[in-house]
Amino acid sequence: MNMRSKYFKEALIFCLDNHGYGSQSWLARKTGLGQQYISKLASRSNTNVGSENSREKIVKACGYEYEDFISLGKKLIAGEILEQIPPETPPKPETQPEPEADLLPPSESELKLLNVVFKLAHELKQIREELSEIRKNTDSRQKLKPDPDEDQKLANSKK
């Protein structure tokens, strides 16, 4: 492995370490490269530093120009940078705002459908309330007693 490759690898490891937990997943999503591939590139025991195209994607995702990234690696190996987080390092995933979705207003047919759903939900709520009221007023342990007037009305109607 040549020196520029070593510088690249050191800068990559430094950026991933400073990014924190989930940094390999974050970098894989940002670059479109596989997480296992990123893991191999970040391994000091592996001499693979990836293709030129992959390195360019990684450098860009870490917020650097290529030569600045190599320079960072060189300074790291020389011991000039120990624990300083470079300002170009992107924020950690938990602090990075999610992109806002493009929200379009609902179409007329969607509004009609929502109106129907709302009406049905309202009717269902009313039915549940009525059923609950019936259950409150009815004691299942108590037998229903016939209305004496009802018996009299029934006898009179048969005559």
Mean of residue pLDDT values: 78
Content-based structural category: mainly alpha
- Number-wise, the strands total 0
Q: What helical percentage do the residues reach?
A: 55-70%
Proportion of β residues?
A: under 5%
End-to-end span in angstroms? 114 Å
Contiguous uncertain segments of 5+ residues: none
Order of helices and strands: HHHHHHH
Shape: rod-shaped
Second rung of CATH, namely the architecture of the domain at 3-78: Orthogonal Bundle
State the assembly state of the protein chains: single chain
- The fold-level CATH name of the domain at 3-78 is 434 Repressor (Amino-terminal Domain)
Main sheet summary: none
Q: Would you mind describing this structure in some detail?
A:
It is a single chain. The protein is built from seven helices and no strands. It has 159 residues and is mainly alpha-helical. Among the domains are: 3-78, Orthogonal Bundle (434 Repressor (Amino-terminal Domain)), CATH 1.10.260; 110-139. It is rod-shaped, with a radius of gyration of 36 Å. The termini are far apart. The mean pLDDT is 78.
